[in-house]
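Q: Could you write out the predicted structure for this multi-component system? I'm mainly interested in how the pieces pack against one another.
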Amino acid sequence: MTETTEKIYTHRYLLTAAQCNAQSELAPAMLVQHIIEVATEHADDLGVGFKQLEADGNLWVLSRIALEMKRYPRLLEDYSLSTWVESYNRHFSQRNFEIRGDRDEVIGYARTIWVAINMKTRRPASLEHFDFLAGLVCDKECPIAPPGKIRAIEPPQMCHPYRFQVSDIDVNRHVNSSRYVELIINQMDLDTYDTFYVSRFEIEFRHEAHFANDVEVCSAFSNDGKALVSTINRGTDQICLARTITLPRSPSN
Amino acid sequence: MTETTEKIYTHRYLLTAAQCNAQSELAPAMLVQHIIEVATEHADDLGVGFKQLEADGNLWVLSRIALEMKRYPRLLEDYSLSTWVESYNRHFSQRNFEIRGDRDEVIGYARTIWVAINMKTRRPASLEHFDFLAGLVCDKECPIAPPGKIRAIEPPQMCHPYRFQVSDIDVNRHVNSSRYVELIINQMDLDTYDTFYVSRFEIEFRHEAHFANDVEVCSAFSNDGKALVSTINRGTDQICLARTITLPRSPSN
């Protein structure tokens, strides 16, 4: 179910058992998939979707995500993602999200940055055709810090090799963004995720990866032990960088 | 959106870009996830869901699937899964599915076998409390062959090692059934799936696998070259066996 109230677009979901993770919740990677889905739907609605950009030989690329959750949607919970455009300029657009659980309780927020690039050159494209976006900018509050600069920690404390498979590739013929999130979450074991939950997650996408690419997923805890910093590397290319902050679970999350 | 017309339960879906595979279609593994989701919903509706079985200390376990597709749902296509109970006895239930695309075109069928087991002993449980199921059996046609006996081909022609990760574990704390389908599909490369599509897929689930289990995914083509037979092995245990039949793609699929 979807609805648009002027500048804010909402998509409602129900978390079925088949979609749950081992903690009977929506997994962070699935939340990222929903963020991309809802952003795409709203952009289509506003007339700045993939089809409109394609007409100019351009496409949207997701550059960064930062999300913060008090808790994740639970088994059989009705939840929703609402999205709005916070700002845009000639080259990129900032789009925010509010995640609500049952009884409309706000359970989290996300910030994303989308860049328009030329399909052939893969260089930044101009959004100046879409001046009407200025009228669609919304000043709804998104009370979480924007994505910050992430620096890899050397040397990493753990590294896992992985080769991208058929099931990792999306409709754009590159690796699915939410799959990177899974690979990073998979750096920790099941006991860890039974005891802690991901309270803040940031990811910066730097390069596209493709079928059969060999990568290493490398992680290390920050000096203060508060964040796990991860990189997915293909040789010397950093495909993406992420910072994961976990907190102990309590009965309310 | 869901609806129930007497004995047949229907769940309607829209295939968004975020849910597509590299061929801009619903992936076979995602179809299997939907099959499980829709079966669960219908069983809940009928009063023979996980909650009712749990009251007796039992649960449903998916034992076999056979599916045949003329084509898979495509990007932005409205499609639906309808399900009904073909038969049941004291120990298991046969549940079928019809998959329809846009304009209600029938694009495929599936057959599944579900077994009730005792949660503690993991031995077959009795469904005799659920006699009313006899009145819910439906004689709607499912014109595909039932799942047959699958025999591993020795020696396999390809083997890939895999260790199950956090993202592979489902709400029941074992490996997600649809993840096995992905691992089997991943035995082939992207070019193969650009040229061929999975016209028939059968899988038999024999053992549960858990977090951090090390397995080998092994496959070999049958003597006539028509089917790829795959097993996922944990030591000498066969976790599951599958038979995949692919056909060259044509403009209609």
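A: Regarding packing and overall arrangement: The mean pLDDT of chain A is 93.
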